[in-house]
Each structure stands twice: as C-alpha cells, then as structure tokens.
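Pilot study result, target chain (347 residues):
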Amino acid sequence: MTTTHAAFILALVGCSVALVALVVLIVAVRTIRALLDRRRAVQTSRWRPLVIGWMNGSAEQATFPTRRRDKNSVVTIASELLPKLRGGDRDALAAVLSHHGVLTSAIQAVGSRRSVVRLRAAVLLDVLARDDDVDVLVGLLGDRDPQVRVVAARALGRIGSPAAIPPLMRGLQHRSLPSNTVSMAIVRIGPQAITPLLGWLYSNDARCRCTAVELLGFLGATEAAFDLVNALDDEDLTVATAAARTLGRLGRPIAVDALRAKLEHEYDTDELDVGFCIACVTSLGQIGDRRAIPLLSESLARSHRLSAAAATALEMMGPRRSLRSQQARTEIEQHQPPIYVSQGGPS
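Predicted structure:
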C-alpha cells in the first residue's frame, strides 16, 4: 500500500512539473512572438513611407537602405504592396526594385541552400508576375520545400503563361504539388490552357485525367466535347463521373446519346454506381434534350438519391427552360427535337 501511494505521489508531482513546464513554454513562445510582431511593426512604420514615396519619383532617384535587416524589411513591405497596386504605381515600385538589384538578387537566391531564402525569392517573383521569370519559377516547382513549390505554382498562374501547364500537370502527376494548387493556377491562366489540357485527358495518371476533365469544364471548353464523351468510357470511374458532370456543364447536345447509352448500361447491371448515374442524369437535365425524358422518368423508380436527381433534371427540362447559348440553340434546331424556351414558344 505504501509503495502504491508513493508511486501515485511521484506521478502527481511529475504531472505537475510537466504542466508547469508547458505553461512556461507557452508563455515564452507568446512573448517571443509579441516581441517579433512589435519589431516588425516598428520596421514597417519606419520604412513604409519610403516605399510609398518611390511611386512618385524615378527609380534612379529612389534611396535604398544598405543594412541587410532594413533592406529585407523594405523588400517585404514592397512585396505586400505590389499585389494591391495597378498601373503606374505598380510599375514605379517594380522599377525601383529592379534598379537596385532586388530582382537579380531574388533570381540568384532561388539557388540558396536555405529554404527561407528561396521562399522569400519565390514570393517576390510571385507578386511581380513577370513573363521573364517563367523559366525560373518552373525550376522552383521541383524545389525540395513544398511551400516554395506552392508559391511557384501560384506565381505561374498569376503570370498566365500556357507554357507553365505541362510542368504544373507533371507536378500533379508526381504528387509534388497539391491538386487544388495546380487547378487554381491553371484556372487563372484561362482559356489559353484549353489546348494543352486536351492532351492530359489521355495521360496514364488517373488523377491528371480527372483534373483535366474538371478544368475543361470550368474553362467552358465546348470544343472538348468529343474528347469528354470518350472519357465516359474511362477505366477509372472517378474520371468517367467527372466527364459526365462536365458534359452537362458545357451543355453540348452532341453528348446526349453517349450519356443515355451509359445510363441505360448502368441500369442493366446488377450493381449500378449511383454517383455516376446521378452525374449522367443531372447532365441530361442541363443539356435539355427532351428525348431523355423517358429514361429520366424511369430513373424516378430508382434509389432515393437517383430519383431526386431525376426529378430535378425533369424540372429543368420543363416548358420554361431557357437556352443558354446561341451555339446550343443552333445544335438543337439542326439535330434535335424542339425545346421550349422561356417565352413559352418552341425554338
């Protein structure tokens, strides 16, 4: 009994000591963070007027601090201001940084052994978004620091060069870049990304195929409809489901027969995939081809989720459904039975 009591006392003392040590550590960390924040605020209040003043003069006349700490503070302030500026103010600030060798130093810093130095350089190249830095940023996509890779991908999206799409997709393929980072960068590149993305629909990597399918939908790539119809037969069901959703988003009537065939095939199997069927049903409703009504009506007798999707699709195909584009209107008039538009008359 005495031994048990002593062990209990020792355990209690140990827990108390550990708790006190944890409290001391938390207080120390907060104190250090507060000191750093105060020092950063002092540096910002000191150098921010100087940086703002650069926008009203020439790059040659702009004064620049010489101490490393002060120089880093000025570059940090400029990096925070640049994304908020447009036009002449942005050009003036970028010209000062270029004149004083900051850009040259940043490009040289991407080869530093210290990840924090490479990250600072990548952030500066990101906010400047210069076409001349595409090759440097593509090189940073292979950096050993994941944070540097993410900043480089974001910068390539901001620059908007379609040449960045293959390395971005390879980063996705090799799992060195998160899919959301790659997707956001390519969406920022815009319609110029459509042609390079078409080739990735036939990649050996299912993740790349699925991402390409979804991005083509977000970019409104109606010219990709035939390739997306082929993707309905993809061996990876995630890719096929994404293709079905994207075809509905694009609204191309040429996809209707393929969607109906896939849905009928699923209904003939013993174990249908509800998610894929819902994607097909929803897309048929978005496209609005009234030949799909019997199949959608049959879907009402399926599972609760599938019947709900079919009911929504049938509602979308009602008499007040409007045509979303002249291209869709033309295709329907030439190849499909009439669809009623919002005015109440036949198209």
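One observation from the pilot: Residues 320-329, 331-347 have pLDDT under 50 and may be disordered. A full batch analysis is planned for the follow-on phase.
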